[in-house]
Specification:
The chain has 188 residues and is α+β, with helices and mostly antiparallel strands. The chain is built from six helices and seven strands; from the N terminus they run E-H-H-H-E-E-E-H-E-H-E-E-H. A hairpin with a 3-residue loop joins strand 2 and strand 3. The longest helix is centred in the middle third of the chain and has 16 residues. It starts with a strand and ends with a helix.
C-alpha cells in the first residue's frame, strides 16, 4: 500500500476534491440536504465551488490534501477568519474507505500547524461548523479536544434554500489553541 503524503492543493486538484466532497455530503448530509440536490447537482455545485476557490492563490486560505494513490482526504481552512474564534476549518472530508485510519486527525494537525505558522494577528484559535445530525463527526472533534460553542440554522449550499430539508441546525466546535491541537492530532 502506498504511503500517505500531504501537500497543498492546486487548481489541478479541483475535480478530485469536488468528487470527494460531493461523496462525503451524500453519505453524511442526507436528511439535512435535499435528496434532489444530493442525487443531482451536488457534483456540479462542488466542481464550481472548488474551481473558484483554487483558481488563484489566496494567502488567507489553506487547502491541504491527503494522498495515497490519489486524493483520499482534504481540509480547507480560512486563516484569521474571525477575531473571536480564529481560523475557520470550512471543510474536512475523508473518503469512506479511509476513515478510521487517522487521516482526519493528521489533516487537522497540519491545519493547526498552518494556523500557528501564518497567524499575523496572534489568532491561534480554530473553529468549524458541523451539522447537528452528524454525530460521528461531532464525536471525532470532541475526541480531539474541541468544545461546543454555539448553534445556528444551517446555511443552504450556494444560498439556495431548496437544497435544504426543513431548517437543520449546525453546531460550532472550537479549539482555543491550534498549537495544542497540532500535537494532539499527531498523537491520534
Amino acid at each position: 500500500m502506498p504511503s500517505l503524503r500531504f501537500r497543498l492543493a492546486t487548481a489541478a486538484d479541483t475535480d478530485a476534491i469536488a468528487r470527494l466532497h460531493a461523496d462525503s455530503w451524500r453519505r453524511h448530509y442526507r436528511g439535512a440536504y435535499s435528496d434532489a440536490f444530493l442525487d443531482g447537482d451536488v457534483v456540479v455545485d462542488r466542481i464550481e465551488t472548488w474551481r473558484a476557490r483554487l483558481r488563484e492563490h489566496d494567502p488567507c486560505r489553506c487547502t491541504i490534501l491527503a494522498e495515497r494513490a490519489g486524493v483520499i482526504g482534504f481540509a480547507n481552512t480560512y486563516l484569521e477568519h474571525d477575531e473571536t474564534w480564529g481560523a475557520l476549518l470550512d471543510n474536512l472530508h475523508v473518503g469512506a474507505a479511509h476513515q478510521r485510519e487517522g487521516v482526519g486527525a493528521m489533516l487537522i494537525a497540519r491545519t493547526a500547524d498552518a494556523v500557528v505558522e501564518r497567524s499575523r494577528r496572534g489568532w491561534t484559535g480554530l473553529y468549524l461548523w458541523v451539522l447537528e445530525q452528524n454525530c460521528a463527526a461531532r464525536a471525532f472533534y470532541e475526541a480531539l479536544g474541541a468544545s461546543p460553542a454555539g448553534r445556528e440554522r444551517a446555511t443552504p449550499p450556494g444560498g439556495a434554500p431548496g437544497r435544504l430539508n426543513g431548517a437543520p441546525f449546525k453546531l460550532r466546535y472550537s479549539w482555543a489553541d491550534a498549537a495544542a491541537l497540532s500535537a494532539r492530532g499527531r498523537a491520534s
